[in-house]
Amino acid sequence: MVEKSKKKLANGLIVGAGIGYAVVYPFHQSFTGGLLSSGLSAALVGGLADAFAITGLFRVPMKLNFLKRCYSTIRTEVIPRNREKFISTLVNMVQDDLLSKESLKQYLKKMESEDIAHFVEVVIKNNLNHVKLSPYIAVIRDFSLKNGYEEHVIRFIRNFFIIKERRV
Q: What does the UniProt keyword field contain (predicted)?
């Protein structure tokens, strides 16, 4: 919800632009008066249009319910009426575009091997009790050996067991 002070400020600016336009309009024939008149009228029209449009996304603007009955093409309350559609579209976008295999592969290609190793280490440590790791470790092993990271794997295993031995 918009804070009351921000709403009051926005309304005050629209009212100020309207009063300023009314005061400056008689002088619109001069260069300065025309410049001020044009600027204030643009601020007034833009502010009213934005207020009407943003309010129309969530509810009927200015309580003009009769407009909905008169004109069936007026689209107000867009977000509440289409909430489920917005959510399903957003979920599909995240699944199909942001988290697709192709986009993840491209992201991983840009990462350095140390960054990938650190990421995998953090994921393993955070999910050690919740996930069976053997299938994932096999995939990581195969990927590492296939791409020439044998030394990193050996160093990781050596450090892992040395740390284990010190704890015991």
A: Membrane, Transmembrane, Transmembrane helix
Kindly report the length of the chain: 168
Closest CA to 117 of 94, 97, 143: 143
Q: How far apart are the first and last CA of the chain?
A: 56
Element (H, E) at 112: none
Q: Report pLDDT digits (tens) over 49-78.
A: 888 888 878 877 666 666 666 655 666 777
**Domain segments of the chain as ranges:** 4-83, 106-167
* Residue 26 in tokens: 């008689």
d(CA 2, CA 136): 47
Show the tokens assigned to 22. Answer: 């009314």
Instruction: Give the containing element (helix H, strand E) for 129.
Output: none
Tokens of 107: 């992201």
Task: Give pLDDT tens digits for 130-163.
Answer: 667 677 777 877 888 788 877 877 777 777 666 5
The helix-helix angle for 134-146 and 150-167 (nearest 10°) equals 140
For the record, the structure tokens of 115 come out as: 């960054």
